[in-house]
Amino acid sequence: MYVPFVFNVVTHVLDSLKEGVCSNTGPFCFLTFKSSIMFNLFKKKRSVPSGDPVKVDLSSQPNVLKDRMQRANMTHDETILADIPNVRIRSEVGIPVMYFCDSRDIVVKERISKGDGGAIPNDLVLEKINMPKGFMKDGWYTLKNVKIHSNGTMQVIATAATKFELVHKV
């Protein structure tokens, strides 16, 4: 009777450790997954924590953002103010994670500084991108009024006017 429950808990913890979500491999690591375990075991809809920093991971597909930046004629060391349509936000172990797989072409609002013509880097960093209050469900959003910069890494940086516009809820 308890075997499927224990198996699901152990499987979830091991998967989370494998993904590098928990740096503590000791017995207390299990406690950090409490809310996610409850979501997964009882099939509750995921919710994205409001106000929490949004992260990217290996499955966020930064190569798609790089492609969108190239389509917008960006080069290395360039900075623009833009909207990124149709990014996906999904709660992974209680942490909001951004995915670019379904994103559309970047809408360039302003070219802040010119690039040097070099290649756009592969790595991606989000800076000060936090889930706003009221956006609690997984879904697709247009990320409006962000700075996008490429020097060493692709950087998506929040501005005072940055906001999430819901496109579609899961």
State the helical fraction: 10-25%
Amount of beta strand: 35-45%
The helix tally amounts to: 4
What's the average pLDDT? 78
- Indicate how many domains the architecture comprises: 2
Distance between the termini: 32 Å
Strand tally = 6
Stretches with pLDDT under 50, minimum 5 residues: 1-46
The gross shape turns out to be: globular
Largest sheet: 6 strands, mixed
Order of helices and strands: HHHHEEEEEE
Radius of gyration computed on alpha carbons = 18 Å
The chain-level structural class is alpha+beta
Description:
The protein has about 170 residues and is α+β, with helices and mostly antiparallel strands. It has 2 domains: about 5-40; about 60-170, no CATH class. Helix content is about 25%, strand content about 35%. It contains 4 helices and 6 strands, in the order H-H-H-H-E-E-E-E-E-E. Strands 1, 2, 3, 4, 5 and 6 form a 6-stranded mixed sheet that branches. It is globular and about 40 Å long. The model is unreliable at about 1-45 (pLDDT under 50).
